[in-house]
Amino acid sequence: MKDRSLRLIVICLLGLLPIAMYVHLMSGQIELSYSSYWKAIFDFNNKDTYQVLIREFRIPRMMMALVAGAGLSLAGMLMQTLFKNPLAGPYVLGINSGASLLIAVSMMTGIQLFQSNFGLIGTALIGAMGAGFLMMFVAQRLKSQISLLLVGLMFGSFTAALVSMIESKAGAESLKSFTMWSMGSLQQVTFEQLPIILTLFILSIASVFLLVKPLNVLVLGEKSASMLGIHIQRTRFLILGITALLAGLITAFCGPIAFVGMAIPNLTRMLFRTSNHAALIWGNVLIGGLFLLGIDSIIQLLEGQLSIPLNAFTSLIGAPFVVFLLMRKIK
Amino acid sequence: MIFLVLLLCACQTGKRTEKSTQKSIANYCRYSKYLSIKDSLGGYVVLIQHPDSKHRYYHLFIAQPTKRLSVLSSTHIGMLSALHQENAIVGISDLRFVFSPLVRNRTLAKQIVQLDQAQSEQTISVDKLLESKTEYVVYSAFSGSFSNEERLRKLGIQCIPDYDWREESALGKAEWVLLFGALTGKMQEAKHLFSTIEKAFQKEKIKLSSVHQPERMISGNVTGDFWYAPAGDSYMSQLYRESGFHYIYQHVKGTGSLAYSMEKIMKDGQQVQIWMNPGFPTRSAILGANPKAKYLPFFSNARIYCYTHNSNKYWELSALRPDWLLADFHAILTNNEGKKRYFYQEVR
Given this model, what pLDDT does residue B2 score? Predict the structure, then answer.
């Protein structure tokens, strides 16, 4: 696709973003005035229930939907480029499973890797990183793309089995906490946690932009990329590091969110019809963010009639999409 | 007579069949929607109706008391303990969820086997069940069915569904103790116990009717994205209503759970004075699981009560002892710190 068309799509998506954010903010059960929003941000009074609702519930939830959708899509794009596999993604390749496993260990066995408030992020990061390197090690020894996905799914099943074993020995309280975390939620993040989350998120996106050239060349294959002067090992390490940071950050705060990281990069590629990662990064961030904002707005609008957990909703949409992609691939 | 013989043949196979009624013989159960026990030929004919189908019944003829029972729910252990029949238990689900000291000790001494440490009735160990020489398995069918039923029956083990958790009335739930009385040959003791509970329950209700200032109350807590609370027609909501609480969702239709957003809870919970069953024993534990609980209008102002100081005791005995639950509710409503509490403690 021509650069002009790509720019136009990005501008359209950028235009849609504030609308989606506005719709998300207004999707709650209670009607709130604009002045409440203004005060909640610039003149906060913690005694006012409506201001608390906006500042502590609506804004963090909206920001987290944006960050999780954009972050997981970006992580998925990186995985798909690194493994040269359109079906790769942090969920399918077990990156989320690695994070979940270490969080299960941390929550239910008392073995805590970090003691600080952000211990959960650190734990999830190490888990995601470990799973990422394991997948990379396996990928170097497998020629078939489908085999790699199967290994990812097997790794997911293996970690799920380990988590079940830990659960069977866990105390009632820690089991309850882990179950609550594993249901996934965009509501756990507080207003105070937003700056650190947004900082890490923006840093990750900026780092991916620095990798545009190696990513564009990696599409040609590692051999060609190496001949064109790309330091393969360092690039791989950086890609995995950023993916682990994004997937770990989102998994730690929101629990597992399925299929976004696999489906959105493919959708973006279909829409953008380019292998230029500068455009694809924009596309994934915007479409991913818009997608999760939309899904969560629907969840909020349906509240009262139907209670659908976030992870269930993304799976409902994502699973048929994977089948569609597989069928296209087989044809 | 021919009809009776035919019925007993059907009962001994334990199969679910169409309902056959015996109007002439009195049913021991007066409150339960799903359980019926009648005398027959020196034993008991038990009829258990499936809660989701009026046409599905489970028949059983109990001719001899058993000394070898496996029970898959805490409530079953509580009912057997109340009848002092812990020695009849040979299999339980998971020791972590047992309160009864005798059952705990017998499990630790390997006299009782643990059948399922994966917390699902569907995954119980059939090998261990056979090793324990169980004659009956009492299950709850929380997930709708009990997949091992047919297989175990072929091995000569009777499987009995216990739908006490589907009962909508407190006494209907407690009346399932009669099933364990019939199984262990302690029917008279079970009848006496139930009659004591029934009287105590009515007495507590009268006491509660004199509490003139019902306090606004909310129940439940957040799991994932939703706040789960008992619906208006559920067992718990009815018990709250009978106790004199002004449960804020008591008029919302439904027998299961309500799932509401935190926003709705923030709005509806403005005047709440009592928060029941947050699921944690301390305020810091509530905050640990959900840091945003501090913004709930009732988190700092309301009195919070839960059974989680001893969850196993609650799950084992609360279904059998609704009178104890009401006694606790009375103490909570009157804010009587000195009164003995059976299950509930203030969350501080």
Answer: 46
Of the candidates B117, B263, B279, the beta carbon closest to that of A53 is on B263
pLDDT tens, position by position, A132-154 = 888 878 877 776 667 777 888 88
Q: Which of A46, A168, A257 to mutate to test the interface with B (most CBs of B within 10 A)?
A: A168
Spatial strand order in the sheet of B246-247:
B246-247, B216-219, B274-276, B303-306, B345-346
Determine, for residues B289 and A176 on separate chains, whether the beta-carbon distance falls below 8 Å: yes
Which residues on A lie below 8 Å from B298 (Cβ)? none
Residue B225 to residue A30, Cβ atoms within 8 A = no
| pLDDT-based confidence at residue A25 (cuts at 50, 70, 90) | very high
How confident is the model at residue A188, as a pLDDT?
Answer: 81
- The CATH class of B211-347 is alpha beta
In angstroms, the CA B128 to CA B107 distance is: 13
So where are chain A's domains? Answer: 4-330
> ipTM more than 0.90?
no
Return the CATH number of B27-197, one of 3.40.50.300, 3.40.50.1980, 3.30.70.2660, 3.60.15.10: 3.40.50.1980
CATH 3.40.50.1980 in chain B: give the residue spans.
27-197, 211-347
Q: What gap in Å lies between CA A233 and CA A216, rounded to an integer?
A: 16
Strands (E), B33-180: 35-40, 43-49, 57-62, 69-71, 89-92, 113-114, 136-139, 158-161
Q: Nearest-CA neighbor of B79 among B1, B190, B2?
A: B190
Confidence of residue A118 (pLDDT cuts 50, 70, 90): low
DSSP for residue B215: P
Third-level CATH fold of A4-330: ABC transporter involved in vitamin B12 uptake, BtuC (1.10.3470)
Contact B225, A186 (CB under 8 A): yes
Spatial neighbors of B268 by CB under 8 A, at least 6 apart, are B218, B248, B249, B260
Residue A117 has pLDDT above 60, yes or no: no
The minimal CB distance from A309 to the residues B224, B280, B290 is found for B224
For A59-95, what is each residue's pLDDT tens digit? 999 999 999 999 999 999 999 998 888 888 888 888 8
Distance from CA of B232 to the nearest CA of A (A): 14
